[in-house]
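Translate sequence into C-alpha cells.
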Amino acid sequence: MTKEVEGKINWLTLEEAIELQKTAPKKIMMDVYTNWCGPCKMLDKNTFQNEDVANYVNEHFYAVKFNGEGNQSVTYKDKTFANPNYDATKANRRNSAHEFTRVLKIRAYPTMAFFDEEANFITPVTGYLKPQQLELYLKLFKSDKYKEMTTPEQFNEYYKSFKGTFKE
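Result follows.
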C-alpha cells in the first residue's frame, strides 16, 4: 500500500480497500476508467489532482482505481471477476468490458462507483465531474443522506441547495 501524501489521492485496489474496511470502516469511491477515455484523463488531471478533493477523499473514503477494460482479476463478495476477452494488442484502444463492470452498472466512462462501509454497492455516477460536482456526491454518500432520497425530486432539492466549498 502506498503512503498518504497531502493533496494526492491514496489509490488502492478494491481488495486492499475491503481489507482496510474490516478495521477502519469507510465508504469506497471507485474511479472506473479506460486507457483510451479522454474525459477519464481530464478527471485525473483536473479533479483528482485538486487538493480539496484529494484531502476529503483520503479522510472519508478508500479510493480505488479500476480499469473497466483491463486484464486484472477482481474478487468481490467471494466471486472472482475477469476479462476473458481481453486483447493485449488493444491495451490503449477500446477493449472488451471487464466482467466486474456489469456488477457496477457501467454504461460509460468515466464512472464513479460508490460502496458503503461493508463494501455493498451503492450506485454509479457517470461522467466527468469538476471538483465541486464530485464534492456534491462525496458529501451525499459520506453523510448517508442518499438513504433518505426515494425520488428524483428529493435529489434535485439536495442538488439545488448544495453549497460546495472545494476550490475549482
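Note: The chain has a mean pLDDT of 94.
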